[in-house]
Amino acid sequence: MNPGPRCKVAIVGAGPVGLALAIDCALRGLSVVVIDDHDSAKQGSRAICWSKRSLEIFDRLGVGSRMLDKGVTWKVGRLYRGDEELWSFDLLPEPGHRMPAFVNLQQHYVEAYLAERAAEFPGLIELRWRHRVAGVAAGAQGAALTIETPHGPYRLDAEWVVACDGARSTLRRLLGLDFAGQRFEERFLIADVELDDDVPSERRFWFDPPFHDGRSALLHKQPDRICRVDLQLGPGADPDLERRPENVLPRLERMFGHRRFRLDWVSVYAFECRRLEKFVHGGRVIFAGDAAHVVSPFGARGGNGGIQDADNLAWKLALVASGAAPLDLLATYDEERIAAADENIANSARATAFMTPKTAIEAVFRDAVLDLARDHDFARRLVNSGRLSQPASLAGLSLQTPPGDDAPAGFPVGAAMADAPLAGSDWLLNRFGSGFALLAVAAEPPPGLPQELPVVRIDEPTALLAARYGKGMFYLVRPDQHVAARFSAPAAATAIVAAWRRAQGRSR
User: Fold this and answer.
1) Number of helical H runs and strand E runs in the chain
2) How many angstroms separate the CA atoms of 229 and 217, rounded?
3) Which 3 state secondary structure label does DSSP give 25?
4) How far apart, in whole angstroms, are the C-alpha atoms of residue 216 and residue 364?
5) Beta strand pairing status for 285-287 and 84-90?
6) Is the bond preceding residue 250 a cis peptide, omega within 30 degrees?
7) pLDDT score at 42
8) Residues 476, 483: contact at Cβ < 8 Å?
């Protein structure tokens, strides 16, 4: 078993997270080898709801327009009790955003678009299909993978290995890592159904619907006249029995009534809320996406959280690999993405407790909230059918420079930037590339800034941009478009440079 040439980064798993990370690394000049034990992008819908923040990341990677063109755009959610609509909500009520609140698009399309985009980087991205990791040995200078293929085994040496190989991660098992958390016994039927007639482009969730007594149901529209259906089954459901067509079809007939439909895909699942204690092991093996953390599908926090993992990791890997930042910058991936994973897990667990109460007290609380939600806004805020994915704030974490006590109000430090229209037909996020930058909003940059820190000047901001960012303000923007620091004009170049160094892990 002869080793091949040593590579910079080996990515295990060619799902959306692994492919997004590969493209992001390549855009930064970092070469990667992607290993997957399948022979192409996998079929089946699986993840379908892609959030505004993920769409902005996908757009930077070069596939955002294709996803918008193919996917179903939506922002309205409706909540029902029985056949009565309790209330509806708008996830993006304000104007001035290029990307919608959500796009529904089957995961196999996303994987195909990303794989085609990855093929545009010959020499930087190598996709190796039907290659399976059988062993891993990590050391201080890198890791060695034992790879099995239809043509025999080989060894792949890499300076870094990133496990993006899903909830049943082979690398996690090979390293013997504990995946701590909670498994929920409640089972759900998930199905893709092709309908002959159309349904609205919105999220619909039912508590105790007339077609599925005593349980919950969720409906999402997808492209190709496909609808995603989730039906709660209860903790005692037999997965093999429940997925049989003779048991699935009557449930769908009760749901869709007179509409003609065809069952396209079906599965039964019980979900978990788990994560690794650490995402970075020995500085050389790193976990992302479902390999690092898993949550329930309600809230669309799994796939979107994984894409934000890749967004957080790629620029740090590139800086460390080039020698521009110390190795311990990768420790901030642990810090920042563990905080995000904990937020997602907490939201997921709360949604589960509300949707499937386990005690009499939880059931009384849920029913009282639903009774009050008919007429009272305060109760509607307590209804929980899955809090929809939002980008995690990095406020208070080590790479961010908090504003001083006397700092004027502005866009919050640690938050992912909000897009805004510019004069003409451009958008704010289009002005930012793959590196650090200083945003100057109606403010003259101070002398003495290093040439390596580009300045994005918006001398005449639109009303929406000014409302979101203020005037006479500077924002230090990270490569993942989170705000690392905020200053009001005039600001000293030394203060901006100090925040820039801190955000690179060079001075904390």
Assistant:
1) 13, 25
2) 7
3) helix
4) 16
5) unpaired
6) no
7) 56
8) yes
Structure tokens at 247: 């048991």
pTM of the model: 0.95
- In terms of Cα–Cα distance, which of 303, 237, 258, 325 is closest to 503? 325
Amino acid (1-letter code) at residue 230: D
Beta strands in 84-124 (DSSP E): 84-90, 102-104
Tell me whether the omega of the peptide bond preceding residue 490 falls within 30 degrees of 0, making it cis.
Answer: yes
Q: Quote the distance between the C-alpha of residue 276 and its chain's center.
A: 17
> For residue 175, what are the contacts with CB-CB under 8 A and spacing of at least 6?
136, 138, 281, 285
Query: Does position 44 have pLDDT exceeding 60, yes or no?
Result: no
Residue 112 three-state SS: helix
The pLDDT, as a whole number, for residue 124 is 97
Least confident of 59-63, 188-192, 356-360: 356-360
Residue type, 297: P
pLDDT band at 464 (very low <50, low <70, confident <90, very high): very high
Asked if 159 and 284 touch (Cβ cutoff 8 Å), the reply is yes
Residue in this structure with the two tokens 């500085």, named with its chain if needed: 283
Q: Is the pLDDT of residue 390 over 70?
A: yes
What single DSSP character describes residue 404?
A: P
H or E segment and range at residue 241: helix 239-242
Edge-to-edge strand ranges of the sheet holding 293-294: 179-183, 272-276, 293-294
Q: What is d(CA 505, CA 335) in angstroms, rounded to the nearest whole number? A: 12
Q: Over 60: is that where the pLDDT of 21 sits?
A: yes
Which has the closest alpha carbon to 362: 180, 239, 183, 186?
Answer: 186
Closest alpha carbon to 41 in 80, 12, 14 = 14
Residue where the block lists tokens 């039912």? 206
Run of H or E including 162: strand 154-163
Q: Do residues 430 and 24 lie in contact, with contact meaning Cβ atoms separated by under 8 Å? A: no
Tell me the two tokens of residue 236: 């005692």
CB of 107 closer than 8 Å to CB of 46: yes
Strand partners, 181: 274
DSSP per-residue letters across 277-324: S-SEETTTEEE-GGGTEE--STTS-HHHHHHHHHHHHHHHHHHHHHTS
Let me know: does 395 contact 413? Beta carbons within 8 Å. Answer: yes
Token couple for 441? 């909003």
